[in-house]
Fold this sequence. Notes:
Aconitase, domain 3, binds FE3-S4 cluster
Amino acid sequence: MRLNDEEQAMLDGRDGPAVQRAMDLLVRYGTALGAERLVDTNNVCGTVGATMPFLRDYATKHGGLDAVFSEFNLDSPDVVAVPKAKVFSSHLQQGLDPEHAERQNVGSDIVKLYRAGEAYTAKLGIQPLNTCAPYQVGNVPVKGEHCAWMESSAVIYINAVLGARTNAEGRESAGAAMLTGKIPYWGLHLEENRGGTHLIELDIDVKSVADWGLLGYYVGEIVQDRIPVINGLRHVPNLPKLKHFGAAAASSGGVEMYHVVGQTPEAPTLDAAMRGRKPVETIRYGEAERRLAYERVNTTAKHTEVDFVMLGCPHYSIEQIWEACQLLEGQRVSPDTELWIFTPRATKQLADQAGYTKIIEDAGGVLMTDTCSSVGRVMPKGTRVAAVDSAKQAHYLPAIMGVEAWFGTTADCIQAAVTGRWSGAFA
Ligand code: F3S
């Protein structure tokens, strides 16, 4: 890999041992990928600290959070003092919501460690956005901007909807990028790799957020890690719809980029989306395919008594909280069910001000931040059957937490929260 003088100086230790380890990691990583050089980035989204149980143990045994950063962000053989992030960096979702620890069955010792991690993040100059949807709360990269982001649902959103450029980074490469402002120049950073491969012709109108989730789930399973181009749009999809499409496609497959003809920034025309190439496959998406996707997402649920309704995967926008409140206001969550809605911290502040948090709490639900049930492994005690409006969460929750999960619209889920029973159906 070719390094410029600045990069070579970092590798030679000019900026201290942590930056040296970071550059060494990026060179090893880039070489393994076949990258010829690095590219500058001023936008990194990653994870530091120790909110997961095994990381908490590691921090305790090895002397703190610099030890965790050294091992898990820098792959360093020894513990190094970690300096402030060199470039604009944000923290992704964490392992718990410290304001609702008791409800999440988390002890005060763990909350204390969590707060230490927050202080550590602030000390490193990393923005504590604590969400899988940083683009909803102030980190909004622009078209063509080279980024180094983790989190599959966020990666696909900024590539496809914003036209920014990132591969799906890991904790190590994102940590190294924070300290150096560099990331290997390969994959989706390169123009020639951003064209569509598969053409998806819509034979039906894709209307609701749930419909976009189903479309994403169906398409992801087929294209896996390649790039679908959606054609035949009849309505302009809003942020939640594109967010759910991408999150679902990244779950059933490994999709990191897509185009919607006439909608997303690199797809003014079908030809532009395909970069002039012919699709390797054309897939038609009609009512039969929609039904198939619905059945696949709903494979785990058998019992109609619902213990837990989880909304906010990816973290809800203020618009989605508003919509949930419209459905919920004036009703009560069933005594047999819990309703947890997840959102970024900054959005919760807005929801507090707008009165939405009170509407949710008056109904017996709770608005949580920072984490989610799959990532934080947090659910009400004894949950056997969950209901979600996210194909991504329906995909992961049964596998991670061993529960049944119903998938449906937000209205289906609110109805389940109020009645304690699932009555959603394919419609
Ligand atoms: Fe976010 Fe958790 Fe879903 S981190 S994308 S809410 S699985």
